[in-house]
């Protein structure tokens, strides 16, 4: 039988093995002498994390469906890809790197969820964007 804990955000009780454990330490502290451990629900954690902050696939609960997180990263990647065309030539690499990073996150989530078709589709898209960058922007100053 699992021990129960209170969520550090909503104070509801649930089995510890269904909650995330957060370890908090004061700024500048070395070691674990002054750390605090608290438990929380994934849905509560989603509410306090910034929406654009990357989340490990294990943190994606019903409140933030895998498909929604893939779509969010894909939209951010496509926006960065579009900005690559609008940017001055020396800034295009930054937008390309952003697009590639967001696609990489989406691919990691799809792999973790065993969505092979999504992995293939997203990989093909990032490969296309890399090809465009290499042929149109690489070496431009």
Question: Please, could you describe this protein's structure?
Answer:
The protein has 141 residues and is mainly alpha-helical. It has two domains: 4-48, no CATH class; 57-136, no CATH class. It has four helices and four strands. The protein has a two-stranded antiparallel ribbon. Helix 2 (66-86) runs antiparallel to helix 3. The N and C termini lie far apart (63 Å). The model has no long low-confidence stretch (mean pLDDT 82).
Attribute tags:
50% helix; 141 residues; mainly alpha; 4 helices; two-stranded antiparallel sheet
Rg for CA atoms: 20 Å
Give the fraction of residues assigned to helices.
40-55%
Percent range for β-strand residues: 5-15%
- Overall geometry: elongated
Order of H and E elements: EEEEHHHH
Number of E-type strands: 4
Biggest sheet character: 2 strands, antiparallel
Q: Ends: how far apart? A: 63 Å
Helix-and-strand structural type: mainly alpha
Strand arrangement, major sheet:
1-2
- Total number of helices: 4
Output mean pLDDT.
82
Oligomerization state of this entry? single chain
Low-confidence segments, ≥5 residues, pLDDT <50? none
Domain module tally = 2
């Amino acid at each position: 039988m699992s021990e129960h804990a209170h969520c550090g955000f909503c104070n509801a009780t649930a089995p510890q093995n269904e909650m995330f454990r957060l370890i908090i330490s004061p700024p500048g502290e070395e070691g674990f002498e002054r750390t605090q451990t608290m438990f929380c629900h994934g849905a509560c954690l989603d509410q306090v994390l910034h929406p654009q902050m990357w989340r490990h696939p294990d943190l994606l609960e019903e409140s933030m469906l895998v498909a929604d997180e893939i779509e969010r990263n894909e939209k951010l990647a496509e926006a960065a890809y579009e900005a690559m065309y609008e940017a001055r030539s020396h800034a295009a690499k930054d937008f390309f790197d952003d697009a590639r990073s967001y696609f990489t996150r989406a691919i990691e989530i799809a792999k973790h969820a065993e969505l092979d078709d999504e992995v293939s589709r997203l990989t093909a898209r990032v490969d296309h964007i890399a090809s465009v960058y290499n042929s149109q922007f690489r070496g431009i100053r």
